[in-house]
Write a structure and sequence with these properties.
Blueprint lengths: L3 H18 L12 H14 L3
Helix pairs in contact: 1-2
Length: 50
């Protein structure tokens, strides 16, 4: 059960980052693994054009 918490926290961080950055069209699933969530975070950061 502890193993699932970091993924959820990171998922929440990704969603907050996307909302804060005004990024649109990004769907993030609660079932994302930690690796996928990190990849999404990288994509969001790369695609951020202010």
């Amino acid at each position: 059960s502890k193993r699932g918490r970091p993924a959820v926290l990171l998922h929440d961080a990704v969603l907050r980052y996307a909302q804060h950055s005004g990024v649109e069209g990004i769907e993030v699933s609660l079932s994302l693994s930690r690796e996928n969530a990190i990849a999404v975070a990288m994509v969001v950061r790369k695609d951020d054009r202010g």
